[in-house]
Write a structure and sequence with these properties.
CATH topology: Purple Acid Phosphatase, chain A, domain 2
Structural class: alpha/beta
Number of helices: 4
Number of domains: 1
Radius of gyration: 16 Å
Bound molecules: manganese (II) ion
Oligomer: single chain
Largest sheet: 6 strands, mixed
Order of helices and strands: EHEHEHEEEEEEHEEEEE
Length: about 230
């Protein structure tokens, strides 16, 4: 199919259910929903740590997914190291609203949104350790769709003792065969594009810090991919 112009909202690290800033986290979530509507995005991509800890209430989890479902457009959620409530087997994916997709496959999986001409690959953080490489199992591009790599981890080129958990190297980013890499884990908006690789960005968190942000990603068949940092109001 011919690629079409897409506008996406990329967010991460909402930490809903946080003990430290529960109200701010909820406020950040509402701002994300508002931004998705205001900018008429085609889809929302969540790059991990949607929830804060394993003891978040099922009620909060359901409310958040209902909030995403009410957007009426595709939402793809990758679990990060904090999303244990989604990964410990207690969450029933059958309760997800239409349009909301949760990546849960060990080893990673690709979600195809063929109505948008978009495919998204990600691997959940089941094992937040130096052994886990969030971009290590990126699947080869398998269609003409726009292709996004979704990952939750730390981009670093300096780890002499192999001590960093969920590490992503600049080499992995520069060689990633995708059109955009949507990252989470670092709570600050940051361009970590490596060499002539695909644009790779941290969206920053929408709450919990001094400058809450989200990213609006424009995927244009002519002009290419561009990323805008949107500063959210506290
Ligand atoms: Mn994290």
């Amino acid at each position: 199919m011919t690629r079409r112009l897409l506008k996406l909202l990329h967010t991460s690290d909402l930490h809903l259910g946080s003990d430290i800033y529960p109200d701010d986290a909820l406020h950040g979530f509402k701002l994300v929903l508002q931004l998705a509507r205001e900018r008429s995005v085609d889809a929302v991509i969540v790059a991990g740590d949607l929830f804060d800890n394993r003891s978040v209430s099922l009620q909060l989890v359901q409310e958040v997914f209902q909030g995403f479902g009410a957007l009426g457009r595709p939402v793809v959620v990758l679990p990060g190291n904090h999303d244990t409530a989604l990964m410990n087997g207690s969450f029933d994916v059958g309760t997800l609203p239409d349009g909301v997709q949760l990546i849960l496959e060990r080893g990673g999986e690709t979600v195809d949104l063929d109505q948008l001409g978009l495919s998204v690959w990600g691997e959940p953080v089941y094992d937040h350790s130096p052994d886990f490489r969030p971009m290590g199992a990126l699947q080869a591009r398998r269609s003409e769709n726009w292709y996004i790599g979704l990952a939750h981890g730390l981009v670093t080129d300096n780890d002499p003792y192999g001590e960093y958990s969920s590490k992503i190297t600049p080499e992995e980013l520069s060689s990633a065969d995708c059109d955009y890499v949507a990252l989470g884990h670092v709570h600050v908006f940051r361009d970590v594009t490596s060499g002539d690789g695909a644009p790779a960005f941290y969206s920053g968190a929408p709450s919990g810090g001094r400058s809450p942000t989200a990213a609006i990603v424009s995927m244009d068949p002519g002009a290419g991919v561009s990323v805008e940092a949107v500063r959210l109001k506290r």
